[in-house]
Amino acid sequence: MARISDEYDDQRRLKRYTKALCAVKLEMSAVRYTLDQEHRGYKQQDDPTIYILGELSGQNVILACLLSNQGKGAAASVATNVARTFPWICRKGHKGWRFMIGIGGGVPSERHDIRLGDVVISMPQGEHGGVVQYDLGRLTEDDLERKGFLCPPPADLRRAVVTMKSNHVGQDNKNDETVSAMTQKSTSPQDLHTPVARLTCAKRGSDKAVERQDRESNLPEVHYGLIASGDSVVKSAMKRDRNVQALGDVLCFEMEAAGIATEHSCIVIRGISENVDSHKNDAWQKYAAATAAACSKELLSCLDPSRSRAGAAPPKLPRGLLLSDPGPSRLGTRPTFGASRGNNFSVGGF
Question: Which of 100, 330, 326 is nearest to 220 (CA)?
Fold first, then answer.
């Protein structure tokens, strides 16, 4: 673990924390162990949210853990608590930002080669601010009658995303490097095992599987665009495609971001743990959480590169945090990760 310091001893020092990173328990572990330094925790008497304070890429950050597993209601509750306990983060004109870090389901297409282990970052597109709520309105046979509007990311964060994206034109993203460093620091190498999916394509039917070409690079990629958020789980490719047709060029589905973006400007970072179809499994969840956390670390460094600690190694990981490629399934077909390690498949039509 990183060393403990006394950064929060008084209110003046507490106000040095200007970035709030929100996540559920699974992703919280991944984000926590990318910290360059962890400070002593903070507890507000009338706030049930779990907070961890620390430094990440030269920025003083607050990690806020959602109290329940998922859903925009839980996210909205945490956003409200953060605004009450750390009001300067939300104050107009103050450089305080929110990041929503976690996992989601990818929407691979001919236009977007999204694979397991990749990362999607919410960015405005057309009339949408980056996050679009798929259950905010009425889905008819022909279209979605939308109601309401979700806040776009703040301008400074959008500029940081553009900077990071331009950096990746001339060099690889740092996700793999950060995740590798996290793995090397693990105190429990025996936990980096190969999980076996409980359900395979053979059990669900794979007659509509689409084989995709291997990638040249061995790195998980970062995609930028719309993220669909809502309380209901999308369990079929047919429902997914109807939502995508109604909402626009959606890259990812998840279940928390709308709870924050309804009232607060934020940016959403999602590691892809599965494709949005009937083939559900949790084999990639911990790895996807790690790639999302790694991406948040790089994005924070783009806010103020002069403050970033170059080469700072993250502290050791907790037991049970899987950061390795989950590997092949029982059938010998491998999950789709960055570049290819065998045949890659995308399943649709169920």
Answer: 326
Number of domains in the chain: 1
CATH number, position 46: 3.40.50.1580
Nearest residue to 288 via CA among 23, 19, 1: 23
Neighbours of 101 (CB within 10 A): 27
Residue 102 lies inside a defined structural domain of this protein: yes
Helix axes 25-32, 285-303, angle to 10 degrees: 50
Residues 326, 190, 180, 5: what is their CA dihedral angle, to the nearest 10 degrees?
130
For residue 296, is it within any domain?
yes
Domain annotation covers residue 232: yes
Decide if 340 is inside a domain: no
Q: Say how far residue 97 (Cα) sits from the centre of its chain.
A: 16
Give residue-wise pLDDT tens across range 46-69.
898 999 999 999 999 999 987 766
Asked if residues 22 and 101 have their Cβ atoms less than 8 Å apart, the reply is: yes
Are 34 and 294 a contacting pair, CB within 8 Å? yes
Other C-beta atoms lying within 10 Å of the C-beta of residue 152: 20
What is the residue range of 79's domain? 1-196+219-305
**Single-letter amino acid, residue 147:** K
pLDDT digits (tens, 9 = 90+) for 170-187: 777 887 777 777 666 655
Cross-strand partners of 145: 138
Lowest mean pLDDT among 73-77, 121-125, 158-162, 196-200: 196-200
